[in-house]
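Recall the central idea of this unit: under ordinary conditions, the amino acid sequence of a chain determines the structure it adopts. In this exercise we apply that idea directly, starting from the sequence alone.
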Amino acid sequence: MTTINQLSAADEVSLGDLLPAFILEDGDTRKVSLSVLLAFLEANLSRGTLSTRYAAPSATGFSVTAESNTHLILTPLAGYAAGTIVLPATPTDRDEFLCNSTQAVATLTINGNGKTVTGGPTTLAANAFFRLKYDGVLSVWYRIS
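Accordingly, the structure predicted from this sequence is:
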């Protein structure tokens, strides 16, 4: 049997092209098309979907605890002088957090829950938003929008 290093390289591929795959259940090598591989990847990889969480703070000085991969929709009853968002304690690499608020928060604290937050907003205008992404190597939440 030819080893993979003895094969010539391809500069382009198409969905009908075949790759070798070792099938663990059967203990043998079989062929799989790139279209089958693509369908497998699409079904098993997360595409960054965020679950939605709602919070309606009723007073200034509010605190909301966030979860990883969450879109937090803040609907305060009015504009407030202060509020805190506490990020997840155990995020994993590439976790994201998205927040928007229908009312202004004059002094916003982003609590990293033991992790560093770089570029986090210190205030929110009415209808403003921000997005953070976690880097697991450096243990830092970075603002990405």
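Helices lie at 34-44.
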